[in-house]
């Protein structure tokens, strides 16, 4: 997982491109990070949550990882005001999941979505109005911190370690 994310994050435009040498995969980096957040949340929920009619089952997995392993994201987002997502929700977690993860995976991203590299800024969100702008650098740093937190959890729950593959492929 980490190698795929780092490959996208560190990718640069080729020499013959008008932006040669500049980083080029902000969208890919975000999608990869968000999909892995979702997968690791599925492990935290031990393959769950149980199948339900609720279309936000994947959101529950995403939320589990972010809340347990990226509490700084939750804290920062709680102090901000967000416009409603396409689904009418107004939290940073909903924005990251609905507009960034789902929006780009399923190709219906809102025109209010933007992201960019802000390597010196130690916040996830650059702006929340009128456009919501995600700092791709802090998302990657936050994901790395989250994975470090995730790796500590099997000490308290050995089933996570012994059944990781079962849970992630459930």
Radius of gyration: 16 Å
Q: Compute the number of strand runs.
A: 3
Low-pLDDT runs of 5+ residues are none
Q: Please state the average pLDDT score.
A: 92
**How large is the share of residues in beta strands?**
5-15%
| Number of helices in the DSSP assignment | 8
Q: Which strands sit side by side, in order, in the main sheet?
A: 1-3-2
Could you give the topology of this structure?
Layout: H1 2-10, H2 26-44, H3 57-69, H4 71-78, H5 92-105, E1 113-116, E2 125-127, E3 132-135, H6 136-156, H7 158-162, H8 164-168
Parallel strand pairs: 1-3
Antiparallel strand pairs: 2-3
Summarize the structure.
The chain has 170 residues and is mostly helical. Helices cover 55% and strands 6% of the residues. Strands 1-3-2 form a three-stranded mixed sheet.
Question: Can you put this structure into words, describing what you see?
Answer:
The protein has 170 residues and is mainly alpha-helical. The protein has one domain. Helices cover 55% and strands 6% of the residues. The chain has eight helices and three strands, in the order αααααβββααα. The protein has helices at residues 2-10, 26-44, 57-69, 71-78, 92-105, 136-156, 158-162, 164-168, and strands at residues 113-116, 125-127, 132-135. The protein has a three-stranded mixed sheet with strand order 1-3-2. A hairpin with a 4-residue loop joins strand 2 and strand 3. Helix 1 packs antiparallel against helix 2 (26-44) and helix 2 (26-44) crosses helix 3. The radius of gyration is 16 Å and the shape is globular. The model has no long low-confidence stretch (mean pLDDT 92).
């Amino acid at each position: 997982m980490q190698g795929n994310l780092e490959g996208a994050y560190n990718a640069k435009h080729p020499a013959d491109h008008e932006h040669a040498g500049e980083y080029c995969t902000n969208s890919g980096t975000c999608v990869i990070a968000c999909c892995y957040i979702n997968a690791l949340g599925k492990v935290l929920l031990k393959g769950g949550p149980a199948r339900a009619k609720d279309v936000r089952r994947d959101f529950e997995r995403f939320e589990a990882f972010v809340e347990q392993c990226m509490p700084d994201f939750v804290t920062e987002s709680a102090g901000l005001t967000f416009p409603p997502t396409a689904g009418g929700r107004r939290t940073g977690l909903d924005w990251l999941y609905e507009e960034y993860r789902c929006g780009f995976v399923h190709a219906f991203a809102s025109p209010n979505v933007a992201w960019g590299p802000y390597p010196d800024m130690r916040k996830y969100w650059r702006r929340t109005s009128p456009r919501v702008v995600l700092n791709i650098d802090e998302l990657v740093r936050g994901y790395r911190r989250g994975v470090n937190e995730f790796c500590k959890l099997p000490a308290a729950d050995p089933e996570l370690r012994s059944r990781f593959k079962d849970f992630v492929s459930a």
